[in-house]
């Protein structure tokens, strides 16, 4: 199948069911769990409650005596009652942190539900602290509050706040945007280098000293489909977006790389020579993992904003049928190329009214349901096989070498169910 040939007209113009009810998602603070590992000289200081601290500690699995690159400035009762000057308190805590951790070059003040409810001006604090601690430390601010955001929007907000302070450049360069595990990022850079594309800049870079810059001759590609605010911020800096399907599976990775190769004048012969071997490995790995997926149905609850490209992968490369594809937000510029390829038929939904969507899932009885942790156990108790959506964010799943692992994440719940049924029959 041609990588850019829509199936049955695609879903880009399909009616979208827009729901605005109760949602079941993690808050944006969760993004710190992968961002603090990616940016090696950064620190994330959450201004929040003990609940925020417990969430991060348990989600990250960091031992209490470890030295992670995140922490919580806990709001006490006196802070919440307005009996203390929040700005003075923040200045003191930041000074103590930087004195103890001189390796910090970039400090993020991260807003939470409590800090936003009592309206602590963290943007003002970040501006003041940047002046105090410059040039050694750059202080930025973004919101990880779960009041209005889903958990992957934490990364979007973080990267978007970095864009205005990036250096300016007139060079024609490729900027790849979105946090990837280092091993996956290295694979991507190797593929691009073998095509003769470089230098390639990264956002986020592993260190603040890396020469990430942006300007009117910058073209950028996204590796994550939830970076709408970062996309807008880069366009405000004059950069130009390269729309493409996201690099999940053989087809998505090839289409993503092809968009960049076309932009930089890479010949078809060179492109084929660089991608042929990893494409063959990806196809073989997907075929092995997808044996139990072919002919099965899948239902996506909105969670991570990965739903649309993953539905494209499962339907076109693994032979599944999508019943419903829900996403917290649908951004036509970002999601459109994947919607073009997604075979017509599923209900496309944006936002969530969880009770109504649960009713639709129960009525459809899909073979596999992709949902959050809070919904998975109840649905499993009702006999529906589920996959935790958050696992798809924490696991390396991008590009060719991870394509088989991606398919395997979806096939394992069905294999497990088949084994349990066999054991029960015996």
UniProtKB/TrEMBL annotation:
GO terms of biological process kind: light-independent bacteriochlorophyll biosynthetic process; photosynthesis, dark reaction
* Phylogenetic lineage: Bacteria, Pseudomonadati, Pseudomonadota, Alphaproteobacteria, Rhodobacterales
List cofactor names only: [4Fe-4S] cluster
- Tell me the GO molecular function terms: 4 iron, 4 sulfur cluster binding; ATP binding; metal ion binding; oxidoreductase activity, acting on iron-sulfur proteins as donors; oxidoreductase activity, acting on the CH-CH group of donors, iron-sulfur protein as acceptor
The UniProt record lists the keyword Nucleotide-binding: yes
Protein source organism: Yoonia vestfoldensis SKA53
Name a Pfam family for this protein.
Oxidored_nitro
- Per the record, the domain of life is Bacteria
Summarize where [4Fe-4S] cluster binds, as residue positions. 27, 52, 113
The chemistry this enzyme catalyses reads: chlorophyllide a + oxidized 2[4Fe-4S]-[ferredoxin] + 2 ADP + 2 phosphate = protochlorophyllide a + reduced 2[4Fe-4S]-[ferredoxin] + 2 ATP + 2 H2O
Q: Bound how, and how many: what does the cofactor note say?
A: Binds 1 [4Fe-4S] cluster per heterodimer. The cluster is bound at the heterodimer interface by residues from both subunits.
Give the pathway. Porphyrin-containing compound metabolism; bacteriochlorophyll biosynthesis (light-independent)
Query: Which Gene3D superfamilies does the entry mention?
Result: Nitrogenase molybdenum iron protein domain (3.40.50.1980)
What is the similarity comment for this entry?
A: Belongs to the BchN/ChlN family.
Task: Write the record's keywords in alphabetical order, separated by commas.
Answer: 4Fe-4S, ATP-binding, Bacteriochlorophyll biosynthesis, Chlorophyll biosynthesis, Iron, Iron-sulfur, Metal-binding, Nucleotide-binding, Oxidoreductase, Photosynthesis
Asked if the keyword ATP-binding belongs to this entry, the reply reads yes
Q: How does it assemble?
A: Protochlorophyllide reductase is composed of three subunits; BchL, BchN and BchB. Forms a heterotetramer of two BchB and two BchN subunits.
- Know the name of this protein? Light-independent protochlorophyllide reductase subunit N
Q: What does this protein do?
A: Component of the dark-operative protochlorophyllide reductase (DPOR) that uses Mg-ATP and reduced ferredoxin to reduce ring D of protochlorophyllide (Pchlide) to form chlorophyllide a (Chlide). This reaction is light-independent. The NB-protein (BchN-BchB) is the catalytic component of the complex.
Sections of the chain in a coiled coil: none
């Amino acid at each position: 199948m041609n990588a850019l040939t829509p199936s049955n007209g695609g879903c880009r113009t399909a009616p979208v069911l827009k729901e605005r009810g109760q949602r079941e998602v993690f808050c944006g603070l969760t993004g710190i769990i992968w961002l603090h590992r990616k940016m090696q000289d950064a620190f994330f200081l959450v201004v929040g409650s003990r609940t925020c601290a417990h969430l991060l500690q348990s989600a990250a699995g960091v031992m209490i005596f470890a030295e992670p690159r995140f922490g919580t400035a806990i709001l006490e009762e006196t802070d919440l009652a307005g009996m203390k000057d929040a700005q003075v308190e923040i200045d003191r805590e930041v000074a103590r942190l930087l004195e103890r951790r001189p390796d910090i070059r970039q400090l993020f003040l991260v807003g939470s539900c409590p800090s936003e409810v009592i309206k602590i001006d963290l943007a003002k604090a970040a501006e003041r602290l940047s002046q105090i601690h410059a040039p050694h430390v750059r202080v930025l601010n973004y919101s990880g509050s779960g009041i209005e955001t889903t958990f992957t929007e934490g990364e979007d907000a973080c990267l978007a706040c970095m864009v205005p302070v990036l250096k300016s450049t007139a060079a024609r360069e490729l900027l790849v945007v979105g946090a990837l595990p280092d091993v996956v990022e290295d694979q991507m850079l190797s593929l691009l280098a073998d095509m003769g594309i470089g230098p390639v800049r990264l956002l986020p870079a592993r260190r603040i000293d890396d020469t990430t810059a942006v300007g009117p001759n910058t073209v950028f590609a996204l590796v994550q489909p939830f970076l709408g605010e970062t996309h807008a911020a880069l366009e405000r800096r004059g950069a130009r977006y390269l729309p493409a399907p996201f690099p999940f599976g053989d087809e998505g990775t090839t289409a993503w790389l092809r968009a960049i190769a076309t932009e930089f004048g890479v010949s078809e012969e060179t492109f084929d020579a660089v991608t042929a071997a990893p494409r063959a490995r990806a196809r073989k790995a997907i075929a092995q993992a997808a044996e139990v997926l072919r002919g099965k149905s899948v239902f996506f609850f909105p969670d991570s904003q990965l739903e649309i490209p993953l539905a494209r992968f499962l339907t076109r490369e693994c032979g599944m049928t999508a019943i419903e594809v829900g996403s917290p937000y649908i951004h036509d510029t970002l999601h459109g190329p994947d919607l073009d390829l997604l075979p017509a038929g599923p209900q496309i939904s944006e936002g969530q009214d969880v009770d109504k969507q649960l009713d639709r899932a129960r009525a459809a009885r899909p073979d596999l349901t992709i949902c959050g942790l809070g919904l998975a156990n109840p649905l499993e108790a009702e006999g529906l096989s589920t996959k935790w959506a958050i696992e798809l964010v924490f696991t390396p799943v991008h590009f060719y070498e991870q394509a088989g692992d991606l398919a395997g994440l979806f096939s394992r719940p069905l294999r497990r169910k088949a084994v349990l049924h066999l054991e029960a029959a015996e």
